[in-house]
Amino acid sequence: MAAGRGHTGRTVSGRELTLLNEGRVELLGRIMSGSNATFLAELSCAGDSAWAIYKPEAGERPLADFDAGLYRRECAAYLLSEALDWGIVPPTVVRTDAPLGVGSLQWFIEGDLQEHYFTLYEDSPETHAALARMALFDYVANNTDRKSGHVLRGTDGRIWGIDHGLCFSAAFKLRTVIWDFAGDPIPEKLLGDISPLAVAVPAEVAALLQPAEVAALQRRVQRILREKVLPVDRTGMRYPWPLI
Fold first, then answer.
1. What is the pLDDT of residue 205?
2. Are 240 and 144 in contact (CB under 8 A)?
3. Of 1, 41, 45, the residue nearest 23 (C-alpha)
4. CB distance 176 to 167 below 8 Å
5. How many of the other CB atoms lie within 10 Å of CB of 182?
6. What are the distances in angstroms from CA 27 to CA 41, 156, 192?
7. Is the distance from CB of 94 to CB of 77 less than 8 angstroms?
8. Which DSSP string corresponds to 41-110?
9. 20 to 30 A from 198, CA-CA: which of 34, 72, 77, 97?
10. pTM of the predicted model, to two decimals?
11. First vs last Cα of the chain: how many Å apart?
12. pLDDT tens, 156-200?
């Protein structure tokens, strides 16, 4: 994939993609907070190194409503974010030659672990536009698990979304903590960004999903283009658990 630039002004560098796609993967330790096996890994290639988050298919717990292969959805979320030119999801690739088998590798984002969606919304009004855009992204991707801790601010000040393994279901399953912008008008620029998805989903995204999931993504986009406001939770129940 070529390097791209999102609205955040961030350029996806060749260095990141080279390390993710070609770097030797060494496991540094398991991250115990997730329900599926997640590892901190070190990537090294040609004298360069960096950290990444590795999620192997072998470490996924079986789910009744999602097929095995959640790592593909992690990568699809990144590719969707890049296709929109939004730069929300850290660079993510699929690796078949990782230590525990096929899985996703995502660039590690350094930041303050005490910050998450709730603190960012309350303490940092300058982040609201990025957070509202993330709410739209989660609707389009049908994110079932946008916990507060899945929203990060990097050391460079940019807002990131992580943990997208439970996205893209054909059935509407949106669960998120980002409801503070519900009912707000969506800026015309963002409506323009998503409008091509109503006609066709990028091939690299569609290849990682089921045909029914691709069709459902298009229907969600078509609906939001008609309504032109961020979704409202009229049930009061579309929250993940735990919240953080």
1. 98
2. yes
3. 45
4. no
5. 14
6. 4, 26, 41
7. no
8. EEEEETTEEEEEEEEEGGGPPP-SSS-S-HHHHHHHHHHHHHHHT---SPPEEEESSSTTSSEEEEEPPP
9. 72
10. 0.94
11. 33
12. 999 999 999 999 999 999 999 999 999 999 999 999 999 999 999
Q: What is the pLDDT of residues 95-131, one digit of tens each?
A: 999 999 999 999 999 999 999 999 999 999 999 999 9
Cis peptide before 91 (omega within 30 of 0): no
Answer with the residue of higher pLDDT: 52 or 8. 52
Write the DSSP assignment of 175-231 as a string of letters: -BS--TTTTPBPPHHHHHHHGGGGT---HHHHTTS-HHHHHHHHHHHHHHHHH-B--
pLDDT of residue 35: 84
* Sheet containing strand 103-107, strands side by side: 24-31, 38-45, 48-56, 103-107, 92-95
Nearest CA-CA partner of 127 in 138, 137, 116, 136? 116
Give the integer Cα–Cα distance in Å for 56 and 105.
9
Average the pLDDT over 32-49 and give the result.
94
Find the length of the chain.
244
pLDDT band for position 34 (cuts 50, 70, 90): confident
Other Cβ atoms within 10 Å of 212 Cβ, number: 11
Residue with the larger pLDDT of the pair 242 and 6: 242
| Tokens, residue 129 | 């536009």
